Each structure stands twice: as C-alpha cells, then as structure tokens.
Amino acid sequence: MKIQLDDNIFKTISLAASQLNIKAYVVGGFVRDAIIGRNSKDIDIVAVGSGIELAREVANMLNIKKVAVYKNFGTAQIKVHDIDIEFVGARKESYQRNSRKPIVENGSLADDQLRRDFTINALAASLSKKDFGTVLAPFNGLDDLQNRIIRTPLEPIITFNDDPLRMIRAIRFASQLGFDIESETYKAISVNAERLKIVSIERIIDEFNKIILSPKPSVGIEMLEETGLLAIFFPQLVQLKGVENIEGKMHKDNFAHTLQVVDQISLQSNDLWLRWSALLHDIGKPTSKHYNKETGWTFHGHEVTGAKMVEEIFRNLRLPLNEKLKYVQNLVGLHLRPIALVHEVVTDSAVRRLLFEAGENIEDLMQLAEADITSKNEKKVQLYLKNFKTVRQKLKEVEAKDKIRNMQPPVSGKEIMKIFNLTPCKIVGDLKNEIKDAILDGLVANERGAVLIYLFKIAKDKGIEPIIL
Ligand code: CTP
Q1: How close is the Cα of 94 to the center of ligand 1, in Å?
Q2: Which of 69, 128, 402, 415 reaches 20 to 30 Å from 18, CA-CA?
Q3: What is the pTM of this model?
C-alpha cells in the first residue's frame, strides 16, 4: 500500500536524507490518519541514522532558522508554517519520551516500530525516492486499522512496562476512533493498572481530556473504570458508582447517569469545559446522600458540595486554576436551577436571579440542564423539554427588559462611601447587597435615578444621612 505524500515538505525530507545517505520514514499517527482519512497536523520522522542531523539539513534547505534540539531525547523539531515536524533516530530500546534513561539510537526501522505503542501506530511510510509513500507494516497494522483494532506490537505487558501511559492511550484511541481493544491487550491493562501511578498526572490528563473530547466519552470513561485506571487518578468519579438499596428503595446509579449526561452534552457541544461541567455536575452526590424512611433517598445540597469540590479536583488533576475553574464551579453550583424554574411558576424575579448568577454562562447552563434529563419515560422528557422552552423564552424577555446578564449595579461601593462619608466597612457591603436584591426582585428599576432614591431610603432606615445634597 502507498499513501499520498503530496506536501513539498516530504520531498525536501527525502532529498535531505539522500544527501546524508540515510533512510527516512514518516511514522506513527500521521500514517495512521492518512490511511483512515483523518486530519493530522504533526509529522513524526524516523531516520535510520541521526534524526538531529536530518532535521538540521531539512531546516537548511527550507531556510528555517530555528531547530529545537533535545539532546537527551535524541530528537529535534522544526516548524513549517503551522506543522510541527519531529525527527528522531531509529531506536533499539523503548520509545520513551519522558524517561530519564538515555535514548538508545542506532536501531533499524523494524527495531523502532517494535517499540511503539500499538500496531496501528507502528506504520511507517518510506521517503526514499524508489518506494516513496510505500507503507511498511510489520505487525499486521494495516489489518488492525481496517478491522478497527487496538493491539500492542509486542506482548502487552512489555509494551505497557515501557510506558504505562500507553494503557490510557489504548482507551483514548478506542474512544476517539471507535475501535475495539484486542482482548489480551485489554486484559493486560486491568492486570497492570497500578503501574499508572508512576506516570505524571499532566500526561494522564492530556489523554483523559482527549477521551472527554471524543465523540462518545462514555465509551472511554467506562473502560477506564472497568480496568481500574480511573480509580488511580480520579477516585471521586468512581465513588459515584453503585446503587444502594434500603427497604426496597433504591437510588439511581450516579456514575451511569453522569456518563449519559456527558454523552448528551457532547452531542450539543465540543467545548472541553462544558463537558467537564457535565462530568462533575453530580460529584457532590456521594457526600450529600441521605436515607429517610418517608421520602427515600435525598441528595440535598449536592450542587453546593459539588461546586466546592471542583477546586480540589482541578488542583489534583493539574487543570487550570483560572476562569475555566470558575466556569465549571458556576455551572455545577447552578445546575439544578433551570429545572427548579420549570417546577415553579416562573416569576420574573427568579429568572433575574438566575441571569445574574449565571451571567455569560446562561446558555451553557441551559444546555447542561437539558442534558441532565435522563429519564427513560419519553413523555416526561418531552414535558421537561417543553417547559425548558418556556424558561428560555422567559430568560430572553427578562434579559431584553432588565439587562441583568452583566449587571453592574448603577451605584458603586466607592460612590456609596463618598455620599455618606463612610470608610470601607460592612455597612457599605450591606447597602450594595440590598440594592442588588431590590433590582433582582423587581422592586427598583436597574437605572441610576431609581437606585439613588432607593439608596437614600434604605440608608435613612439605618440612621445614615448623606453629607452632600
Ligand atoms: N508513541 C508511543 N508511545 C507513547 C507515545 C507515542 O509509542 N507513549 C508513538 C506512537 O507511534 C505514536 C507516535 O509516537 O503514533 C506519536 O505520538 P503522539 O503524537 O502522542 O500520538 P499520535 O499517534 O500522533 O496521535 P495524536 O496525534 O492523536 O495524539
């Protein structure tokens, strides 16, 4: 089999290799993706010889000034437009990017392929003039690609020992590409799951995020749970699993429900953080669970507990502690509010409060709340969705009228201090809060004149007089 290598870059690498009198191949993901018609930005080149020298020669020919050389890893990288090209010499030993062990080069192409993670990633396409584009697949990688199978080229235990991250990678590729993991390979993951502990959390999360971004994330997350990998890096998620039964009363399995919500939101959005919000929306349930003889199982306040847990989870998993964290906390904390509006008569005041608290996240929150409906009763689902339409309509009307979404109360704390000659103190905060509440409750219009009149009135009730006027 041959793949099309139309880009001029490949011709240049071919020429550079022949000038250095070495052989060069495109390997790994690029070849795999070219065959299955998937877009791939990064190119990995293996040289049977020095990868670093080949990179320098290619850069020279393309007049590229910057060659990033990683001596310890025996690799070099150049960037051509927005394409990253990594060069490495063929290796005899394990293909480890993050190991401190010295890299052993001077292997043959076959040695190098043997030390890669999966047969579908061990494909190489020749860059020699005489067989340009011909695919070399020593372990039936082409058949595995066609039959959609993830399998290690060596005994799974050897491949996974070389780099235990590969256990998660197997599941990531299965979830991303919709492939099956061959049974011996899958068994070996369960047996060796503990070895994931030696892998850095950053590398694990990189792969986990790819699972979350896959078309149906539950496919990968279920495998992570089943093999025992999930418990190692994300125990809080595993704790959602299980159904308790007291006196014949059961609650639903919150793990299965969560995965269904993540899948449903994934049909609507590719946003990583909205998907994370779905993954964490019920994370507070295990600690909020209570059984009551009359009412059965309750999870009161799980959204508040859950929102509080988000920061620690982000910290442990080295996820960004910036506005992404705030966004997920906001959605987890508010996820029950739209459905609560559906149950009540929808008052303007309740809608204003929701708009104020969700701000810019309101549309994402509505999507999450809709995805949270996982009832098997189709009639119930239809009724909820219809009611959500009413809530959306109401949100639109109130927002158009009151502009609450990005509300900055028309009188600031600074101004309050100036008007009443106050230094920063609790009373300023109280006055500000009362103004905010009055606007949200519809007692005062969201405009300066009305708010000032209201401010004087509530201040007077507290015995505070303005100094100007
Ligand atoms: N590789 C490996 N073991 C790893 C990581 C990578 O053997 N732990 C090899 C595989 O041959 C892989 C190649 O290095 O195809 C490139 O790795 P990477 O860029 O991480 O993955 P891709 O296969 O290119 O897939 P994607 O672009 O989706 O990340």
Answers
A1: 13
A2: 69
A3: 0.89
Q: Is 299 in the pocket of ligand 1 (CB under 6 A)?
A: no
Helices (H) and strands (E) counted in the chain, each on its own, are 24, 13
| Residues in the chain, overall count | 469
Q: From the CB of 86, is ligand 1 less than 6 Å away?
A: no
Asked if residue 311 lies in contact with residue 321, where contact means CB atoms within 8 angstroms, the answer is yes
Mutate to test the pocket of ligand 1, among 41, 99, 116, 160 (most ligand atoms within 8 A of CB): 116
57-71 core/surface letters (b: 16 or more CB in 10 A; e: else): bbbeeeeeeebeeee
Domain boundaries, the chain: 8-146, 148-233, 413-461
Tell me the residue type at 227.
Answer: T
The two domains 8-146 and 148-233 share their CATH topology (first three levels equal)? no
Alpha helices in 213-336 (DSSP H): 217-227, 229-233, 235-238, 254-268, 272-280, 285-288, 302-316, 323-334
Kindly report the CA angle at 60 between 57 and 65, in degrees rounded to 5?
A: 125
| Range 148-233 classified under CATH 1.10.110.30 | yes
User: How far is CA 5 from its chain centroid?
Assistant: 32
CB neighbour list of residue 146: distance below 8 Å, 6 or more residues apart: none
State the CATH class of domain 8-146: alpha beta
Distance from Cα 29 to the centre of ligand 1, integer Å: 6
Element (H, E) at 77: strand 75-80
85, 121, 160, 168: residue to mutate for ligand 1 pocket, most atoms within 8 A of CB: 121
CA distance 157 to 193: 11
Token pair of 352 as six digits: 């204003």
- Report the nearest-CA residue for atom 9 of ligand 1: 116
Mean pLDDT (10-residue bins), the chain, 469 residues: 90 96 96 93 93 96 94 89 93 61 73 94 96 94 97 96 96 97 98 96 97 98 98 97 80 93 97 98 91 82 94 97 96 93 77 90 95 89 86 87 77 90 90 91 88 93 80
21 CB neighbour count, 10 Å cutoff = 7
Q: Find, among 216, 335, 347, the residue nearest to 281 by Cα.
A: 335
